[in-house]
Design brief:
alpha+beta, Glutaredoxin, 4-stranded mixed β-sheet, Glutaredoxin_subgr
């Protein structure tokens, strides 16, 4: 069972694309994307939940991972796969 992965994103975001590719390489097939460029209310929700303005903002289950750099660092430290596998 893979944890639910949610990513706040925009249409043109190179870090979002890199994050998506990294997650796919880890076997994530169902990525829930929330487009904050299309829905200003979702951007406000994201900012309230994370305290950050930039995308991507990635959640794995209930855990706020952060942006792409945070996701990459978590993977390099060996923490991404265990989090994805619940």
């Amino acid at each position: 069972m893979t944890a639910e992965v949610i990513m706040y994103t925009t249409a043109v975001c190179p870090y979002c694309i890199r994050a998506e590719r990294l997650l796919e390489s880890k076997g994530v097939t169902a990525l829930k994307k929330i487009r904050v460029d299309l829905d200003p209310e979702q951007r406000m929700t994201m900012m309230q939940k994370t305290g950050r303005r930039t995308v991507p903002q990635i959640y794995i289950g209930d855990t706020h991972v952060g942006g792409f750099d945070d996701l990459y660092a978590l993977d390099q430290a060996g923490g991404l796969s265990p989090l994805l596998n619940g």
